[in-house]
Amino acid sequence: ASANMGMRLFSAAQRDFEQVLRLNPQHQNAPIMLALLLHDEGRTNEALNKLNLYIQAHPESVDALLLRATFEIEMSQYEAARVDLDDALKLAPFRADLYLERANCFEKLGLKEKARKDRLKAKTLR
Q1: Predicted confidence band at 66 (pLDDT cuts at 50, 70, 90)?
Q2: pTM of the model
Q3: Residue 67: what pLDDT?
């Protein structure tokens, strides 16, 4: 599936990810990769639906929360992204990338001081 994605064979990659999920519904990366694939194909709403279902079943998935926040930022849904990033940071408080993404979100919300603090925090974690 990943190889097909890299070659931009999206239909084949989607079939492969879906097959992985049929064989192993608890697979950790396949739903996230499938959502990323759908997003890359321009099917962002479908990607968000897949992520929403996955996060409902796996609320501890930092990577899924981060990916959903990234999609939300692209869609100018900054408050929703902030909530996802806050949740991700509760689960993984030592990940600099999460602070940087939240700083980006804070910037979009006009919260420049909070953005500055998150960038400083990220810098200390690197």
Answers
A1: very high
A2: 0.86
A3: 96
The two structure tokens encoding residue 5: 């994605």
End-to-end Cα distance, the chain? 32
Quote the CA–CA distance of 20 and 118 in Å, as a whole number: 37
C-beta of residue 108 within 8 angstroms of C-beta of residue 96: no
CA angle 107, 96, 39 (to 5 degrees): 70
As a three-state string, the secondary structure of the chain is: CHHHHHCCCHHHHHHHHHHHHHHCCCCCCHHHHHHHHHHHCCCHHHHHHHHHHHHHHCCCCHHHHHHHHHHHHHCCCHHHHHHHHHHHHHHCCCCHHHHHHHHHHHHHCCCHHHHHHHHHHHHHHC
Contacts with 71 (C-beta within 8 Å, 6 or more apart), sequence order: 39, 44, 47, 48, 51
Cα–Cα dist 8/39, whole Å: 13
Residue 70: per-residue pLDDT: 95
Residue 60: predicted pLDDT? 96
20 within 8 A of 30, measured Cβ to Cβ:
yes
